[in-house]
Amino acid sequence: MRYALRKLGLLLLTLWAAVTLNFVLPRLMPGSPADAAIARLSQNGPVSPAVQRAIEVQLGLPDGNLWDQYVSYLHNVLTLDFGVSYTFFPQQVSELVAAALPWTLVMVGLVTVVAFVLGTLIGVGAAWRRGTWMDSVPTMTGSFLSAFPYFWTALLILFFAGYVAGWFPTSGAYSATAVPTFSAEFVGDALYHAALPALTILLTSLGGWILGMRNTMITTLGEDYVTFAEANGLRGRTVALRYAARNAILPNLTGFGMALGGVVGGSLLVEQVFNYPGVGYLLFNAVTNQDFPLMQALFLMITVSVLVANFLVEILYGVLDPRTRR
Fold first, then answer.
1. HSE on the CB side for 221, CA within 13 Å?
2. Which superfamily is assigned to 94-325 in CATH?
């Protein structure tokens, strides 16, 4: 219990620091959305101060000193009120995030979990059968796939499977004629459109899980308690999973916590390539248009997700390896 309370206190302190940093960073960026709008209007002549003020009020730009803005910002964070989006005016930021988040969670989140489980199991098998084809094939394949960046793999898959072969749609989350419902027809259409971006994320992330688990597993197999378990005549599967893999998975578990927390941020480049309406695509538009409310909401959501995921991983660490409690 004391271990969990210490971790909880650290989580709350880190959350406050992240919220404060999230307030400061957008204000350090040069210019503002109002400046961009005024620059476009200035092509037809100088803009009066009254027009400039009207644009700022319409966009809901923060006013007052930094302390007043900070207090107002903290209140809005606690009430989940992030204001109106500058890019998609007059839509609320919360509505935009609520519309994009399910697409990212289903596509990126599910693929991340599948890649972690599959890569970890393959890594365990490769380490247990090291020196055989069951080790060399996954290791070489994983190294080859990991060498390609996300966007390059996405472009290759988009070109060959989308444009050349025509097997899958090349953009969007569902057909233009489909009506978003919870029907089997719409779910099938959404999964069909998510196939290419999901395959991209799976291929580019699988190799890292395989190599990480294999290398840690080989080190763990040389420990005395693994040798003792084998000397006692335990089955190979029991030694591999309950003795070696349970301790070897800890570093991979840390990476999984980071990846799971980052799921909320989406896969920006992949979503851009496939024009997938997830959080990553929304974040790109927010940064491009200097949309402060939308940027702050997305950055805060990503940060909180990563911190909470790491907190849960640390608690799970204490369960899997009691030595970490000390």
1. 20
2. MetI-like (1.10.3720.10)
- The three-state secondary structure class of 84 is strand
Torsion sign over Cα 146, 151, 156, 161: positive
* Cα–Cα nearest to 145, from 198, 199, 215, 203: 203
Q: Where are the domains of the chain?
A: 34-79, 94-325
Q: Classify residue 181 by burial, with Cβ atoms within 10 Å: 0-12, 13-18, 19+.
A: exposed
111, 198 Cβ separation under 8 angstroms:
yes
**In this predicted model, what pLDDT tens digit does every residue of 183-210 receive, in sequence order?**
777 777 788 887 888 888 888 888 888 8
Map tokens 């990991």 to a residue.
146
Residue 78 pLDDT: 80
Residues 225 and 321 sit within 8 Å (Cβ to Cβ): no
The amino acid occupying position 12 is L
